[in-house]
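Problem 3 from the worked examples.
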Amino acid sequence: MPYSRSMRIIAVSSPLKPTEYFNNLSEEQKKQVMSDSLGPLLLNSGLNYAVPMWWIFNDQEAGFKLRNGSAFLVDLGQGIFAVTAAHVFRGYVEAKAAAVAIGCQLGDALFDPEAQLICCRDDLDIATFRVTESDVDQIGKSIVTSGPPNWEPLNPEAGNFAFFAGFPAQTRGVISGHAFATAPYFAMPAITSVTDHQIVCRFDWDKSISFGESGFPPQAYDIGGVSGGPMLMPTLVCGGVIWRFAGVIVQAAAGEMFEGVVAVRAHYIHADGRIG
């Protein structure tokens, strides 16, 4: 992915790596660089990693219901697998237990979460699943990888930017032809706090930039449904961006006291899909 004009200048004129240079800019300088096409390029690139996970079921009493969460594909060196939040998987299991009939999709691929489960850790709120090559082709999304070899471990710090994406429940629906539809929610906020267990991003609307004609969503906009989506951190390199795996979204809050997301850190997920 090409840089914007501003980022080409940064890459050439600075002896620092582009990411280090960007993080050292003032808030106003960061806004200027992000507004000059870099922001939309980053957001649209990151969005391609998020995958909706749907299930539609008949519970006899209320007829057919549609539910969803978010997920993404990962390849850490031992094959591709899918990741979501454990509570998203448990939501599917509970629906299946009460349903007369149920069907599930991961993106455009038919999906059986229980049969394809690799590992589920409720205490960490992460679940992983086997996917076939055919599944990956049908899903057609970018795959989160472990990053280039011999890189230093990812070290998220407060103030660095993190990208997340998912599919809010309130945007889901069924369109003509019985196809599912939903609208993604995605953003690249600054990290507020980091522990060995999680990464927290609180939304700071005063420092935010809107790249769409519709502007910002209303404050306290319900983004429940983005759980299970990816949290990624961009590393800017000459000629593009490398997305590094930071975590799994497990909480999305919208209210007067807190607006933001919480991710469980990626280091709990092993290359074979085990969690711990």
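Problem 4, a separate protein:
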Amino acid sequence: MHHLSHETDLGTYHLGDSAELLGANLGQELRGKVQLILTSPPFPLNRKKSYGNFAGQEYKEWLVGMAPLFADLLTEDGSIVVEMGNSWVPGRPVQSLLHLESLIGFVNSPDADLRLCQQFVCFNPSRLPSPAQWVTIKRNRLTDSYTHLWWMAKTDFPKADNRKVTRPYSDSMKSLIKRGKYNAGKRPSEHGISENGFLTDHGGSIALNHFELEQIDEETAPLNDLRAA
């Protein structure tokens, strides 16, 4: 059983076990009506926390079991976005593959029919140094400063428009548009840069799949994030 915690004209807040809620009446009511499921479940840790997370193989089975429940809620062009952090092998300075195994199992769930649309990196330079044993005590690893957001859908073409999330042009791009010329032609990567392709002012450039949670100081030493243009 769940109880309704709060309701306004904008929506409803439910408190309870997600698998139980979505497997019962609430899931039936929402079936085929949800455009976006955006969730940050407990990360795939290999040890128990006080908030009662699943650990290890139990976590993988739990997350994979959520895939058909989530997929059942989606509209035909709806999306699922799941934030997932890295996991580490207990007592060792070694990253576990648990988060990747959980993701692959989720996407490949035969009852969900999902595909992975894109991976996003969420970079937070203010995260506390972790895993502490290997970062602040032994000093043989870097601060784990990012999580991944995995965008999935039931179709190759879910509702999406990158023109809605443009970012401000850089000073160099503003100068290029003002100047009206640039070095066109073939690149070593085999990309063909047209004569006028970059001269149209679209009001901003296409967003990257790398999100920064705060402005990055160019003088700041890198964490486990390397940037190169």
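Solution to problem 4. The longest strand covers residues 74-84. DSSP finds six helices and nine strands in the chain.
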